[in-house]
Amino acid sequence: MKENIEKAKKEFEKLTITSLEELENTRINYLGKKGIITNFLSSLKNVEKSEVKELGKLINEFKSEVSNKLEKVKNELEEQKLNEKLESEKIDISLNGTFRQIGSANAIEKVIEELEEVFISLGFTVVEGPEVECDLYNFEMLNLPIGHPARDEQDTFYITDTMLLRSQTSPVQIRTMLANTEKSPIRVVCPGKTYRRDNDDASHSHQFTQMEGLLVDENISLADLKGTMDLVVRRLFGNVESRFRPSFYPFTEPSVELDISCFKCGGKGCELCKNTGWITVAGAGMVHPNVLTGCGYDVKKYNGFAFGFGIDRLTMLKYGIGDIRVLYTNDLRVNDFNRRDN
Predict the structure, then answer these.
(1) Domain boundaries, the chain
(2) Secondary element (H or E) of residue 303
(3) CATH number of the structural domain 107-335
(4) How far apart are CA 127 and CA 94, in angstroms?
(5) In the beta sheet, which residues pair with residue 133?
(6) Could you say which DSSP state residue 183 is in?
(7) What pLDDT digit, counting tens, does each position of 108-137 carry?
(8) What would you report as the CA-atom Rg of the chain, rounded to the nearest whole angstrom?
(9) How does pLDDT run across 234-244, given as a tens digit for each residue?
């Protein structure tokens, strides 16, 4: 039996195992229930008692040798398999990545942010208010009582007889003045969505964006309004001139239209300015005393000016957009303007 054990050891030492499958077959052949080492252990009952101890030691040493070698080979084969997998599945990080377009602000939002920066630098505060508004704030407290003909131009969508979608952001100014219990000076700009029916004008949208502003203080004049508007339009459109033309708004007196010299033709006349050399960009005026009185201000001490920009119109002028509907579609190019002539 001793000779058989030595012979089996030599045969095992000569074995070359090159795969995990061969490794498993070798394990079964030597250590399995019917394996070579198991048979040696079972045969001990047939030998002389004096030889059992020596042969048992020899078999156990053989068993340990087989187990250790098989474990070592297993680790080597698994490491080799892992390296082969890593090599075949490795990522070439030098290749260009997949391009994903990153979203950005809509052109309307860019113009709003640009205007907000200008007005904040002048000491104004940005204030927002509800889009569903009451008739009292949207019309009556703005010097537009029921039956006033100027209401027709701002015909909006009514939810009830007294609740509506605001036709302008001026109600935010009313709310701000009413909330100012100390009746101290105010400087606010109010951007936001507004709504008008405009059924008969295909060039208008039922929804558009405005930014209106209000300044209330002592000894305010049209000169203050003109200086403010000059700064704003130059920041927005570059080196342009501005002028006031008389106009009418129920909530301001006197009222003016703000024009700027055409930035496309330099005031010479073109299709953009309809050959006049001027482009209208805003309405403005001195706040009507009725509006200030209704909000609790002493008109003997305070006066002020108000103005309103149509953000959609400013955006179309700034970026050369010819159709207002482009601003409200999912065309990503609208979010990528960086020049006026795009």
Answers:
(1) 2-89, 107-335
(2) strand 303-310
(3) 3.30.930.10
(4) 49
(5) 164
(6) -
(7) 999 999 999 999 999 999 999 999 999 999
(8) 43
(9) 999 999 999 99
